Amino acid sequence: MKRNVFYVLMISVLSMLFALPALSQSATVKGVAKDAKGTPIADAQVTWHNDDNGRTFKLKTNKKGEYFSLGIDPGTYTVTLTKDGKDIDKVNKYKVGVDEVTLDFDEKQSQEQAVQETAKAKGMTPEQVKQMQEEQAKVEQYNKSIGTVNDKLKAATAAEQGLAFVRPTLDSWIGYPATFTSSPACRRPALISPPSIIRTPIASRCIS
Length: 208
Description:
By secondary structure, this protein is α+β, with helices and mostly antiparallel strands. It folds into two domains: 2-105, Immunoglobulins (Immunoglobulin-like); 128-192. 42% of the residues lie in helices and 29% in strands. α2 packs across α3. The longest helix is centred in the last third of the chain and has 49 residues, at 126-174. The N and C termini lie far apart (79 Å).
């Protein structure tokens, strides 16, 4: 029993000794992710893709928006911040050596940098670019609202078409033409029977 314990300890020590050179040739990466309001981005994924050897390291931020990892290979990386399957930010051609590397994601700073680059490329001032972005955001919001209204209209049209399909079936079922009127109880169309015909009452309900 003692011999087995000795062998296990020896294997553990040898494994650590062999791992030390590999760790000395790798980097430590860390950073913090914050949104445009300065709030930590929790449960986000930080993907480090080595453009040289194709290896990918996927890290996750904690409640404070922090991430940390050992054993990252030296090389040139594409680093992507993702939340709920959506890319939030990306850094290209990021150089990593064998030291500790800190790469933070600050969405407010990234947005300001993007505005500066757009202004320079289009020959505009940063204020003009921000105004243009605000107008584009309003247009997108308006289009989204129109899309929601159109969806509701389509649903109402489909319901009306379904009611038109049901009407002949009701005619054949009750033996006389079915009519629809506005029920005072629910202010919606309801099925009624002609007063001249006495039949077993049909359970009344509002037809939406």
